[in-house]
């Protein structure tokens, strides 16, 4: 009897792990690395033309070969006949991963309190498991700039790839100190300040910006001369823009503010990128002359002024590019960064042209951020951020078939897709109660 | 002389009538690819419009004398796009003073001068459903607008032959405004149901009181005084009598299912769900018991009750047989609804016909105007859009937009400066750099209720739909 019990207990214990596993139904597909051969595609390299019947070999996170008749060797072959390979798209201004539900303050982590907080790190607040990341990357957007907002110097933006389990794994090798350039205009219909007050406020804000900048300069000079400095993280981080360790990403939109910003940076030996630039088209020649690269968007946006042409925002990128400005695009979004290709399409249709629009979401941001050796085109040696599609990814009817980020094959799944699979044919369906 | 005075008075009377004569145009559009929506696509086809009505669709039509011709070779012609959820051209949106405000009418706050009308036309939208906001369980009565840009009389842009509709709202917005903001029912989704059932039962009693009074009135020696008139209850009674279509702001499946049950209990059949982000979960019920859902193409996670949404919502609803439309609820999105509809091809692989129906005939059905607009058919009102490129292409550009055969938008005549009146004193024009504030007005006029919760975030990008 005792023996029988023993046997039963042993059997039960033996089954225990199975009993636990019984709660798990179905397989979870994870991103996985490996050696992949994207075989026989039309490869839109962006920088080196469009190559038909071409294959791309992905190894150790990099693109190692691009050409016809590549031998697969031990690579996993993905037949891309009839399909297109593009570089992953880069959204150069988002809050992706910094917020989960935008109306729930507890989940909003992109705007810290304070006017001068350049030490706030976007990379710190990136939630690698934010639902929107999975939703975004299946659209072919593989890389985004996460930008904090808030005060005059709200923080430090960081480029992230949309794969990885820690912010450091996601980090894409570019940071910038963010500045919200003082706004000299009226902010909207609820802004009831008098014109005098608007002017005074703008002057005050500009003076404050200058004072802070001078402080940071002094800080850097003292530091460089070997002085013992008190802990001053704001100045420590701001001075990185002055020493050119990091560029200054200046958020500026209204035409007069853009002009002021051009003047403001004129005598400063710093790396500057303008972002937003909603009214860039009004002063495009001046931006081009100053040689300042621009990240603009959203493209699908209202004109900034009631009196503007309806397509002012659609046409903005094209007008700036025509004037000679190097233009990258952003959605300035958090949950619908997946729409970047559609913003690009609108910019293309309203004057930028398809080729330039593609550059504005690939090689241009890579060049503006100084990372073109790794990003922005399908070229040997670059990071394997790639998408495979049935057609032009800017078109809604096109399906994205494969996404690779840092050489990882990304599962084409997310909550939106899982809900679709569950509810398309619900069971039970309609049942009388 | 007296006679003349009478005639003049009669004429003046006509002029004052709100059923003002609206402009009607005649035009022959030649050689377009005509996307009729209801009768397939017709290549190299002409459409003749006379006095605002589509008179003929065919090949080699010739223009009657006095009717001008437009060559649309290589272009697409589709019916005017209809937005079943908009707040464009409204001065105010929410009367957030009580959980039921059915007496309020949006037609009293229509602003025909709002530039949003023109911008919608530039996106091919000829009709918008100008809705009350979502602060109340039962909001105000909406207005269906025809985008006759340039009209000065609000009545002229109201589609007078459209049936009455009313805004309802479930979930977070009414519970936040009234429960959390004012400390009255509803604070929960249970309370929302109670407000609805109490309201309809009160309306039934109100109806009975009037029926009793009207019956007694004809009796000899009757001294029964009439019941107090209530526009609020009369409107609810009109809903029960099937005279008004409910358009209900809703997100979660449970609240959608609740309203379906309430509607069934009260015999209400004219019910359309708006937003309906979790409509996909109760798609069979929506298909069976309602006039369907009007949804966003891809908006989600801007508030908690839309966190579990999917961009495949429209496709799931469509495949389950629910009448489905794509709306904007935004002064920005309204300008590219053709593109929003096209997203149903990315998310669920809908056909061109299905996608286009979602911004034309389907919303027309949900607004009760499908006998007049929503497709290119002989006899229908000539609301038309000429597109360069197929309207479902991301590169499509609307070229011309007609309402009742009158051209209100032409990309070639578009002006760089849209100001109708340039004031010399206007030095600093408002620059709306935060478009959301302008674009999304579902919860306009109730911001005060949120300051306690969101103070610091009000200036940030926010959606309050």
Task: Provide structural commentary.
- The complex is a heterodimer of chains A (433) and B (465).
- Chain A has 433 residues and is an alpha/beta fold.
- Helix content of chain A is 33%, strand content 21%.
- Chain A is built from 13 helices and 16 strands.
- By secondary structure, chain B is an alpha/beta fold.
- Chain B contains 14 helices and 17 strands.
- In chain B, strands 1, 2, 3, 4, 5, 15, 16 and 17 form an eight-stranded mixed β-sheet that branches. Chain B has a six-stranded mixed β-sheet with strand order 8-10-11-12-13-14. Chain B has a three-stranded mixed β-sheet with strand order 6-7-9.
- In chain B, a hairpin with a 5-residue loop joins strand 1 (27-35) and strand 2 (41-50).
- Chain B starts with a helix and ends in an 11-residue tail after the last helix.
- The relative contact order of chain B is 0.16.
- Mean pLDDT of chain B is 90; it is low at 11-18, 424-428 and 448-464.
- The interface between A and B is large, with 70 and 74 residues.
Order of helices and strands of chain A: HEEEEEEHHEEHEHHEHEHEHEHHHEEEH
Principal-axes geometry of chain B comes out as: globular
**Main interface pair?**
A-B, 70 and 74 residues
Largest sheet: number of strands, sense, barrel closure of chain B: 8 strands, mixed
Mean pLDDT of chain A: 93
Q: Could you name the ranges of chain A where pLDDT drops below 50 across 5 or more consecutive residues? A: none
Layout: helices, strands, pairs:
The complex is a heterodimer of chains A (433) and B (465).
Chain A: H1 2-21, E1 36-44, E2 50-59, E3 62-67, E4 76-79, E5 84-87, E6 89-94, H2 122-125, H3 131-137, E7 141-146, E8 155-161, H4 167-170, E9 171-180, H5 195-224, H6 233-242, E10 248-252, H7 255-266, E11 272-276, H8 284-290, E12 294-296, H9 312-323, E13 327-329, H10 340-352, H11 354-360, H12 363-368, E14 386-389, E15 400-405, E16 408-410, H13 415-423
Parallel strand pairs in A: 1-4, 1-5, 6-7, 9-10, 10-11, 11-12, 12-13
Antiparallel strand pairs in A: 1-2, 2-3, 5-14, 7-8, 8-9, 14-15, 15-16
Helix pairs in contact in A: 5-6, 8-9, 9-10, 10-11
Chain B: H1 2-16, E1 27-35, E2 41-50, E3 53-58, E4 68-71, E5 76-79, E6 81-86, H2 115-122, E7 125-130, E8 138-141, E9 143-146, H3 154-157, E10 164-169, H4 172-182, H5 189-217, H6 231-240, E11 244-250, H7 253-265, E12 271-275, H8 283-289, E13 293-295, H9 313-319, E14 324-326, H10 337-346, H11 352-357, H12 361-366, E15 384-388, E16 397-403, E17 406-410, H13 435-439, H14 451-454
Helix pairs in contact in B: 5-6, 5-7
